[in-house]
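Worked Example 4.2. Consider the chain below.
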Amino acid sequence: MTRVVVVHRQPDVAAEQAAILRGAGYQVEVCGGPTNYPCPVVHDLPCPLADGADVLVYEAWAAGGSEAGRQLVAHVRDLYADLPLVLTDVDASLSWIETEGPERVRPLVGRPDPEALLAAVGMALADQGMAV
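Applying the procedure from the previous section yields the following structure tokens:
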């Protein structure tokens, strides 16, 4: 079974995304992110949740502001270069987002509807390892 880690600051949104993914057959773990809990990734240390994941779904603002989000993605990419990363809640203020190369993500503008979330996760899994 494909394992997804959902990282979102808002527990209700994380639960909603987890329910959508579980309904599609994914095994899901949820994390409140570094603004809510100590996060090993921000210190360049492996994350027990991410270690077993097949794909990560991160809220763009999980680390706080735009620069903190950019740094969090950079840390995730340093530790998990081949792990697909879907970034939700993206808006135009996040000019640092890359869709190719070492810090690539699959961005979703705004709060994704169920179809967009499932499509992004599916595409991220299909592209796994191809964008390094």
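The chain has a mean pLDDT of 92. Strands lie at 3-7, 27-31, 55-59, 85-90, 106-109. Compare this with Example 4.1 before moving on.
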